[in-house]
């Protein structure tokens, strides 16, 4: 199995999945998969989420750029499988629930929830979102509009790569 997949195919699979699944019907959990070797903060994440029913957080070890170690193969999730969860966690740069950005947009256009770099407030933030499903759904929808439908489109990716050349 290719856990990453070809970009346009992954986008199509995610769109199909999103069309068939309302936010309220997704798994009410934070999801994360990754290698703890590449970021020291990830050990804190594993510690904070251990045994929490609101978390599906698991470490995997890559044996190469495209393969995980055999014992971790059942824990891997494809990109579309991540979309079956209400909350995804990004551990790079700043830590937050949602997609990667450095700008917190509060209010009706908020598109992610920032958490402390040691994840000490993750439980509190997740509980707030689970207790306020309309707020959580709006943040998720804003995230889709900003990232999937604007910054991560094939055209935007092409512009990005052209600017680097």
Keywords summarizing the entry:
165 residues, alpha/beta, 6 helices, 41% helix, globular
Question: How does the SSE layout of this entry go?
Answer:
Blueprint: H1 7-20, E1 27-34, H2 41-49, E2 55-59, H3 79-82, E3 85-90, E4 95-98, E5 112-115, H4 122-131, H5 133-151, H6 154-164
Parallel strand pairs: 1-2, 1-3
Antiparallel strand pairs: 3-4, 4-5
Radius of gyration: 16 Å
Ranges where pLDDT stays below 50 over 5 or more residues in a row are: 99-103
Helical element count?
6
Q: Let me know the number of strands.
A: 5
Task: Determine the oligomeric state from the structure.
Answer: single chain
Mean pLDDT: 83
- The succession of helices and strands, N to C, reads HEHEHEEEHHH
Major sheet size, sense and barrel closure: 5 strands, mixed
How many angstroms separate the termini? Answer: 32 Å
Content of β-strand: 15-25%
Shape descriptor: globular
Helix fraction bin? 40-55%
Structural class: alpha/beta
| Biggest β-sheet: strands ordered side by side in the sheet | 2-1-3-4-5
């Amino acid at each position: 199995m290719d856990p990453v997949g070809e970009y346009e195919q992954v986008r199509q699979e995610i769109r199909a999945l999103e069309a068939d699944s309302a936010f309220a019907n997704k798994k009410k959990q934070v999801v994360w998969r990754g290698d703890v070797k590449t970021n020291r903060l990830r050990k804190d994440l594993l510690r904070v989420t251990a045994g929490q029913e609101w978390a599906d957080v698991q470490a995997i070890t890559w044996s190469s750029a495209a393969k995980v170690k055999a014992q971790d193969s059942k824990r891997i999730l494809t990109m579309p499988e991540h979309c079956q969860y209400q909350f995804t966690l990004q551990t790079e740069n700043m830590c937050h629930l949602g997609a990667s950005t450095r700008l917190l947009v509060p209010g009706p256009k908020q598109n992610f929830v920032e958490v402390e770099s040691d994840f000490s407030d993750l439980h509190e933030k997740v509980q707030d979102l689970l207790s306020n499903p309309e707020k959580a759904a709006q943040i998720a929808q804003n995230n889709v509009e900003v990232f999937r439908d604007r910054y991560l489109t094939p055209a935007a990716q092409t512009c990005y790569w052209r600017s680097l050349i």
